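Service request form, structural biology core

Requester: graduate student, group of Dr. S.
Request type: structure prediction, single chain
Budget code: on file
Notes: please return the result as C-alpha cells.

Sequence provided:
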Amino acid sequence: MDTRSSRILEKLARAKADPSLLKSFGAAKHEFTLNPPLPESAIVGFEAEHGVTLPADYRRFLLELGDGGAGPSYGLLRLSAAYTEPFDYPGALTEPSAFVPGTEYSTGWWDDFPGPDDRRPDPLQGTLSVVHHGCSDFTQLVVTGPGRGRLVNVNWDGAVPPYVLEDLDFLSWYERWLDELLAGHRVAGFGDKLPGDEGILIDILATDPAPSRRSRAATSLAQLARLSPTAVRALETATTDPAAAVRTAVLGVAWRCDIEIENAARAALSDPEAAVRAEAISVLRVRRTADLAEQARAQLTTDDPELIRRALQALGDSADLTSADIAPLLNREDHRIRTSAAFHLGDARDSATEALAHALADEHPGVRLLAVQTASRRDDRALLPLLRRMLATESDETVVVNLRRVLGE
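Core staff response, request fulfilled:
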C-alpha cells in the first residue's frame, strides 16, 4: 500500500471517530466504512468483459482500499453497480467519453449530444458512475477518451450542465473530500467546489481570465466552513466584475450565506443585467434593510419575470406590498409575470378582491390557477359567486379541481 492510500485510511478513521460528521449528508448510510477491497481477478474480469482498462488510481483504490462504501453523499458505488448497461447498444463503455477537462458545457449540450454513427447517443458513454448524490445527480469517472481518469458531475436528466472537476485523478478527488469534510466545509453534492483553500479561491476570483472559473470561485468560497474579512472584501469587490455571470454568482452567494455587503448590493440595483439586480434585491431582503420596500418597488417596472418575482417576494417580506403594486403586473404580456403577480396577491396588506377577480379571468390557465389558490389562501368570500360561475365555464382540468376544492364540491 502506498503513502497516499495509507494517508486516506488515516483520514477516514478520523472522520469515523467524529460523531458530528455522521450528521453530514449521506453519512448515515456508509458510516465512513469502506467495503472490502476487490481481488485482482475480479477487476481483470470486469475489464475483460467491457473491453476497457480502468484508470490506475481508481484501480488502486479498488485493490487496496475498498469496493465502494465511504464517500461523498451516499458513498461510493461498488464496481458491479458502477456500470449497469444503461445504454441502448453494447460496448458503450469503450466509446470515448466527450467530457474533456477545461470545457464548458451547456444544458443544451446534453440534449444534442453527438453519439457514434447511427446508434442512440448517450452522454454517459465511456464513463462509470462512482457516486449517486441523490435524485438524478451523479459523479462519473471517465474511463475512455481524452478525459480518462477525470471525474464529472452530471445530472442524468440534463437539468444542469455537466462539470468536469479539476482534481487530476480519483485518489486526489477522494482525499480532497476527506480534507474538506474534516475541515468542516460543506460537502453535499461534493465536487462542484474548486480545489483549494480560501486564499487560492480569492486569487482565482480576482485574477482568473475565465469568467466561469471566477464564478465558480465565488460559489466555492460559500462552501467553506467560515469566511474571513478578507474573503468578504474580495466578494464585495467582485460585485463589479466585468462579467455579468460573475456579478450574479457573487451576489447569489451573498444572500444565500447572509454576507454583509448591502452597499455593494444597492449599487448593483443599477446594473444593466436583470439577473444581477435579482440577486442584489435578494441580498437586501435577507439582510432586512430599512429601504427594502423602496428598492424592491423600484424594480417592478422591469420586463424580467425573475427580477419581478424577487422584488414581489421582498415587498411581501417587508409587509409593505399592496394590491396597487401588483395590479399593473396583471396586464403584462408575459404570463410568468402575471402568474407571480397572482401568487403574491396573497401577501398584499390591503384588499385584493378586485385584482384577484381580474386574474381569475386571465387567458392563461396558470394565472387562473394561482388566482384561485390565492383567493383560497386569503379566504376572500367576496369572490365566491365569481368562483362558482367560473366553475361552470372553466376548461382547464387542474383549475377545475382547485375550484371544486375551494368551493367544497
